[in-house]
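agent: user wants the structure for NADH:flavin oxidoreductase/NADH oxidase N-terminal domain-containing protein from Cerrena zonata. delegating to structure tool.
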Amino acid sequence: MHFKLRKNVERLLGKTRCLQSPTACCNERANSVRSGASQTPSPLGQLTGDSQHSMAVDTYICFPSHKIDHVLAPLTRFRANAQHVHGDLAVEYYRQRSSEPGTLLISEGAFIAGKAGGFPHVPGVWTDEQIIAWKKVTDAVHEQRSFLYAQLWALGRTADPSVLEKDGYEYVGASDIPVTDKPKPRPLTTCGYAELLAAMSKPLTLNPPTEIQEYVQLYAQAAVNAVQKAGFDGVEIHAANGYLITQFIHDSINNRTDEYGGSIENRARFALEVLDACVKAVGASKVGIRISPWEAYNESHIDNTIPQYTYLVNRIRELHPDIAYLHVTEPRVVSLESRDPNDESNDFIRKIWSPLPLISAGGYTRDIAIEVADTKGDIIAFGRPFIPNPDLPRRLRENIALTPYDRSTFYTPETAKGYTDYPFAS
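agent: tool returned. relaying tokens verbatim.
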């Protein structure tokens, strides 16, 4: 891999993990705790150049020495079963793409709760069965000396109403602005959730939160489930691509008149509350957040990109400068399609966020990745090229030709074809 590209990823994850054996490393950490010495950040904490050890704080997980290679961007694949539980296919899929020690994988979006879903065959992280299944995946990745972050996902108005109805949930969103060919979603409320249930003639619970605050807590609980139970190294809050958090952020799809709408500050409130709750739940160094300032996917265009995201990113930096990373999508891509970005650029975000770790994803080739790493210092994430090239870090490093992907297999439920059947380079 190009030297600068590798060094930028190392800046995120740290160049060395454990120069001693895992047991010796954990013993040294235990002695350090007893002596009151300062502790190393989690695997996604930044390290100084002469660091000798980096461990997963709180879980005391240690990994043998390795170099950091690349980042797998989150990719929806629809391989979970009808109960949103992953099986052996996912274990093999993530094992293959973590075969280069030190690779950071960001999982496909995992629903934070049943009511936050609305697509079939997407994994969740709210039931014991789902968590146990994810633990098999994280174990497989850690055996390869790589790392896995769980992307936390809530759909809002982009959900399939028929799927929600079948599962016994309401169709909701940030506002009542519908997506084409879908009904109007019911806006999430700031009234007491007990009031809402009473109005709907449903049973009450003791001291329920407001409905929006319930969602904030669902994100926090999902973070706990992922990190403390399923063994993920951290979580990424999905605040991009027109899903629930974006529906609060973007002016074109937020017509609220309460404290969650009407101004730049109010539209950013839900995203910041979710981030704050996840940080409190699992620690800042185990939390990243993904945003898509220029993307109009799911009819989520925004009319004031730079003012809105300048405020949001500034507030994230002010409140939580020690989060694992900020993840941005590039304007040259909308969902699966490339486009001309014209004068659109994420440089205004880089100016705010630098020198903190910034992951950039969207339409990267090897040459573009090297150029951006050289000139901007970004950590580059690859999505679609990682699907047919499970050994992508090696192929990029050695400039080996990439296997083309077959888009028709991207979303075929519970099948190995186009998922785990791509070959490694010889």
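agent: one observation worth passing along. The first helix runs from residue 3 to 13.
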